[in-house]
Design goal:
The protein is α+β, with helices and mostly antiparallel strands and 189 residues long. The protein has four helices and six strands. The strands form two sheets. A three-stranded antiparallel β-sheet has the order 1-4-5. Strands 2-6-3 form a three-stranded mixed β-sheet, with no helix packed on it. It is elongated.
Length: 189
């Protein structure tokens, strides 16, 4: 909308034209009509520009949100796949843990299995999957450890100390995707 102020170009145009055109002429009426149409056009232009700017801002926000959603989805998928692979790593570690049975297997077979296990570990490293494998006799941390069993102890200094790692835990980008399964000492009088 036009403002009646001396710095407004519409006001200057209107003043200058009215000074040079006689009041009673049909040209004056046409000019006034054109000036009114110009004011309407300028108001429409302002409205359309504001609408376009809002639409552009909405588009940029939607684009940014889409990129964030894509990144989150990618992280969830990656986390899910790596979580599935952890069960395979657990199976390898169980096989390696049974020393007697492992030593009875043919040497070439063992080397092949170890090679496959190392490839799996390389995948974990490439995707920045970190092990949570606490040393024995460290303090239990409920954020990183899952106590699956407790063993009573009569020594207060041994309370909440880890005595055995049942299954390693893992975290991805500082987010724990599986806590370490541990046995913990519990002090009891």
């Amino acid at each position: 909308m036009a403002k009646n102020n001396q710095n407004d170009p519409e006001f200057e145009l209107e003043e200058n034209l009215e000074d040079h055109v006689p009041e009673n002429s049909s040209l004056s009426d046409k000019l006034k009509k054109l000036i009114e149409e110009l004011k309407i056009c300028q108001a429409d232009k302002t409205e359309y520009l504001a609408g376009w700017q809002r639409a552009k801002a909405d588009y940029l926000n939607l684009k940014r949100q889409g990129e964030e959603d894509k990144k989150l989805t990618s992280q969830w998928v990656k986390e899910g796949i790596l979580s599935d692979l952890l069960t395979i790593a657990d199976s390898f570690e169980l096989a390696f843990g049974n020393k007697e049975a492992w030593e009875q297997a043919p040497e070439n077979w063992r080397k092949g299995i170890e090679y496959i296990y190392n490839q799996l570990q390389n995948i974990f490293r490439d995707h920045k999957l970190e092990e949570i494998n606490p040393p024995i006799d460290t303090n239990f941390n409920p954020q990183e450890h899952d106590p699956i069993a407790t063993v009573e102890t009569g020594k207060p200094e041994e309370d909440d100390k880890i005595i055995e790692i049942i299954k390693k835990g893992y975290k991805l980008n500082e987010k724990i995707i599986r806590p370490a399964s541990v046995k913990v000492k519990h002090y009891k009088d």
